[in-house]
């Protein structure tokens, strides 16, 4: 069965922006602006020490933001049916990119993980990050039409999804594997797949994670340091201890923007995985609460978009995008605050990194596009003429 014939046709010519689409757009821009300000503060000392230019990371992040916003606008203003028709090719291309990282000369190893495709020794892109928006699109497309597909098509795509997870796991990148696996599972759950199949997939995922932790010594050490980082305060527990010191130093109102002490070469990777610790130190409990409220507001609007979407595939895209944007954010914050074991997940729209920034803006763009095309969402438009006319 040809998947192209199964994509529902939805009129993309929404002349006015629905209220929910506007809210999502402004929440995304607010999130991005806060993230850029925090990255400027968090990265300045390291950039100045390493390169003699405190703006080194910030300027490069701005370049990636521009690239990401180009993709963001393309997705926001393109009909979803066209995006879906091309998504599987880009998905397969990035799947190939994930496996190309294992080829010597193409893949670059950083901090023990081979996740980047490179030119020479310079990392260029991280396929495991860039594949996330296409994972949402393709999983929504497959699981949203699950009962209309032949078993050959179902099996083929389950194997392809498995190849994605296996490739990311072998890099090794357990945290991203778990996030992508949970996204696939939740999209399948929202699509109404049979509970026995969902339970089997969940059990398989747990066994895979346990096996990986059993084999990889550094993953076991991370897990042990999570339970008691003070056992090895200058080794495996160092990152978490410094992060907790930063968060605790913030107090109720914070030390003030730019006045974090832990970022002064005490807290490792303070502008990527542990950037929330710098934010919490400088803005305190009040700032952290405000950020959590921003994430909750984003989640609420996103789920309203999913609820009001009449097209089942679009609804699943909204759910998958929300899981990746907000779920990854809470996972990152949980790691920085010691609630979860240390992982390598960036904080969307905050952490330094081109692939992460482009992927996050693309996911946000998909969510806004769903809001624009949602027939239900246009009922709550800012303009009355978007509402369906009553029959006389």
Could you give a quick summary of the protein structure above?
The protein is mainly alpha-helical.
What secondary-structure arrangement, pairings included, does this model have?
Layout: H1 19-51, H2 56-76, H3 80-100, E1 107-110, E2 113-119, E3 122-125, H4 127-130, H5 132-143, H6 151-169, H7 174-191, H8 195-215, H9 217-227, H10 238-250, H11 275-308, H12 312-336, H13 354-373
Antiparallel strand pairs: 1-2, 2-3
As for the number of domains, it is 1
Average pLDDT taken over every residue: 87
String of helices and strands: HHHEEEHHHHHHHHHH
**Class from secondary-structure proportions:** mainly alpha
Helix content: 55-70%
Number of helices: 13
Radius of gyration: 21 Å
* Main sheet summary: 3 strands, antiparallel
Note down, in words, how this protein is organized.
With 392 residues, this protein is mainly α. The chain has one domain (31-95, 121-383). The chain has 13 helices and three strands, in the order αααβββαααααααααα. β2 (113-119) and β3 (122-125) form a beta hairpin. The radius of gyration is 21 Å and the shape is globular.
Q: Main attributes?
A:
disordered N terminus, mainly alpha, globular, 4% strand, single chain, 392 residues, three-stranded antiparallel beta sheet
């Amino acid at each position: 069965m040809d998947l192209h014939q199964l994509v529902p046709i939805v009129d993309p010519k929404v002349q006015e922006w629905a209220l929910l689409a506007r809210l999502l757009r402004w929440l995304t821009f607010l999130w991005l602006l806060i993230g850029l300000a925090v990255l400027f503060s968090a990265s300045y000392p390291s950039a100045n020490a390493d390169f003699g230019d405190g703006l080194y990371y910030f300027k490069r992040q701005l370049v990636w933001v521009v690239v990401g916003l180009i993709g963001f606008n393309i997705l926001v203003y393109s009909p979803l049916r066209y995006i879906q028709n091309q998504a599987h090719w880009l998905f397969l291309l990035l799947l190939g990119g994930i496996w190309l990282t294992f080829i010597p000369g193409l893949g670059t190893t950083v901090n023990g993980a081979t996740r980047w495709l490179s030119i020479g020794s310079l990392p260029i892109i991280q396929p495991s990050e860039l594949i996330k928006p296409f994972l949402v699109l393709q999983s929504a497309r497959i699981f949203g039409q699950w009962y209309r597909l032949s078993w050959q098509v179902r099996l083929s795509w389950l194997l392809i999804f498995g190849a994605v997870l296996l490739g990311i796991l072998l890099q090794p990148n357990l945290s991203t594997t778990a996030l992508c696996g949970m996204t696939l599972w939740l999209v399948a759950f929202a699509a109404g797949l049979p509970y026995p199949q969902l339970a089997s997939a969940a059990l398989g995922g747990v066994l895979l994670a346990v096996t990986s932790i059993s084999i990889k010594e550094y993953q076991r050490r991370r897990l042990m340091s999570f339970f008691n980082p003070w056992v090895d305060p200058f080794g495996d527990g160092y990152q978490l201890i410094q992060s907790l010191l930063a968060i605790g130093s913030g107090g109720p109102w914070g030390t003030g923007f730019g006045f974090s002490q832990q970022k002064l070469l005490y807290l490792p990777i303070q502008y990527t995985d542990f950037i929330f610790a710098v934010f919490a130190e400088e803005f305190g409990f009040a700032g952290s609460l405000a950020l959590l409220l921003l994430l909750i507001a984003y989640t609420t609007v996103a789920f309203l978009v999913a609820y009001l979407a009449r097209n089942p595939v679009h609804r699943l895209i909204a759910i998958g995008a929300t899981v990746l944007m907000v779920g990854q954010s809470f996972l990152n914050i949980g790691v920085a605050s010691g609630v979860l074991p240390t992982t390598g997940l960036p904080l969307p729209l905050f952490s330094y990194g081109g692939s992460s920034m482009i992927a996050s803006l693309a996911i946000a763009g998909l969510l806004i596009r769903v809001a624009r095309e949602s027939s239900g969402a246009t009922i709550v438009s800012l303009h009355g003429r978007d509402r369906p006319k009553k029959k006389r």
